[in-house]
Amino acid sequence: MEEILYRIVENNRDLAQKGKLADYIPALLKADKNHIGISLKTEEGLVYKYGDYNQGFTLQSISKVVAFILAISENGMEDVFKKVGLDSTDEPFNAFTKLDLPNVNKPANPMINSGAILTTSLIKGDGEEKFKKILELTRLMANNESITFNEEVYLSEKLTGSRNRAMAYLMESKRILSGNVEDTLDTYFKQCAIEVNTVDLANLAGFISSGLPGLEFEGISNKDMMLLVKGLLLTCGMYNYSAKYTIEVGVPSKSGVSGGIMALLPRGGGIGIYSPGLDENGNSKAGLGIIKDLSRELKLNLLYDNSI
Ligand code: GLN
C-alpha cells in the first residue's frame, strides 16, 4: 500500500501546480501549492500515510457533513428535510439565484452553501454553543481531541463572505431560514475554519462508514443514517462534478475549497487527501487525480462489477 500511495501521489504531483488557490477567502491564498498528502485507513484500522499528510488545512465544505449529522441527531430526519432538499444540483456550490424563484422554498441539498447554512441554523443552542457542538462532534469523529479552528481563516471569510450573507438573508426574507442570521453565519464561517490534517479526514470518513458508532438519531437507525450520508455524498459531495465523479471514482466523498477531499471506504475505511490547488469546480486538482487513480488501482468504485 505504501508503494501505491507513493506512486500515485508522485504521478499526480504536477497537477498540484496547475490548480488555483481559492482566492475569495483571502487567508486561503497563504496555502502552499506544493503541499500534497494522503492518509488511507483500512477497514482493519491501519493508517497508511504519504507526503504532507500532517499538514493542517481547514475543513471548509467538508464541515457540512458534520453539521448535517448533528442537525439530524437533534431534529430528526423529517424536520431537517422539511427545510432542505435531497436533490443533486448542476450549479456551483455558491449559487443561489434559484432560491429567489417563487416556487422554490428549499435549498437543493445540505452540501451546497445555502443548504449548509440552513442545516447549521437547525443546530440547537445560542451563540458559541452551536459551534462548540460542531467542533466536539468533529473531534469525536476524527478521534482527535486537539482539533481546533483557524482564527485567521475564520475572520478572513467572515469579512469577505458577502455571497454567503446574501443567500442567508434571501432565505430569511422568504422565511426559509429562521433565527439570528448573523449568528448562523458566524457559526458557519467558524465550522468551515476547523483545522484538520489528512489523518483526521481519513478517521472522519471511517467513523461514518463504520455506522456512526455511539451517536443516536431520531427516526432513523444508524445503518440508515450511514446510507443517507453516503448517498448524499455520492450525489452531492463534489459539487456540480458529483455525477461525473461517481462514474469516474464511485466513492462517497466530500471536498472543500481549501483543497481537502474526504472519501468513505466500506466498513470503517476512509481516505483523506490534501492539495490546495483547485480545478474549475472548486475540487482539489491533484486530489481528484489521486483519488481517480486510487479508485482504479484498488477497484474502489461502487459501480465496479468484479464478475464481468
Ligand atoms: N467556506 C466556504 C464557503 O462558504 C466553503 C465552500 C466550499 O468549501 N466549497 O464559501
Tally of discrete structural domains: 2
Find the CATH superfamily of the largest domain: DD-peptidase/beta-lactamase superfamily
Second rung of CATH, namely the architecture of the largest domain: 3-Layer(aba) Sandwich
Number of strands: 8
Characterize the biggest β-sheet.
5 strands, antiparallel
Overall shape: it is globular
Structural class from helices and strands? alpha+beta
- Percent helix: 40-55%
Which fold name fills CATH's third level, the topology of the largest domain?
Beta-lactamase
Strand order, main sheet: write it out: 2-1-8-7-6
State the name of the first-level CATH class of the largest domain: Alpha Beta
Bound compounds, please? Answer: glutamine
Radius of gyration: 18 Å
Unreliable spans: none
Count, helices? 12
Strand content: 5-15%
Arithmetic mean pLDDT: 96
Order of helices and strands: HEEEHHHHEHHHEHHHEEEH
Distance between the termini: 25 Å
